[in-house]
Amino acid sequence: MVTSTFIAVVLVSLTVLIHYESLRLTANIIPKLNIPARTRIIVVIMGAFIAHIIEIHVYAAAYFLMATQWGLGELKHFTGAIDGNFDDYIYYSMVSYTSLGLGDVWPKGGLRLVTGVEALNGLILIAWTASFTYLAMEKFWVLPHSRRKKKSK
Hints:
Blueprint: H1 2-29, H2 37-68, E1 73-77, H3 86-97, E2 105-109, H4 111-140
């Protein structure tokens, strides 16, 4: 349990750092782009999406190592669709990170603690992305003059 807790803390720290740096980089690049303001929002979404995919892969790598190299748990399944390759861990991580929790694959051993932490971490990082996207839209999503509220005198 102590090892899994340590791994979970390292994973949270690493994914928060990845997310912070991704959003910081995006925030620095967006104003410099010579593209329409609304198109900048697509860049924001793509930057955040890439960050989330990287973070999911970080957790998948940890699950893979925990299960196949360090003997700290395993993934179980209902149908036999899991054969233990890295793609299975990516799928499991994505389901956990997004808090979808389909239930076709479940963790045993130390992977259980890390899975719970990943769900909470994913929820926080997704909310952070939503907040960042909102701020970017507020700044760059300019409505046509006819749709703006008229200022009262």
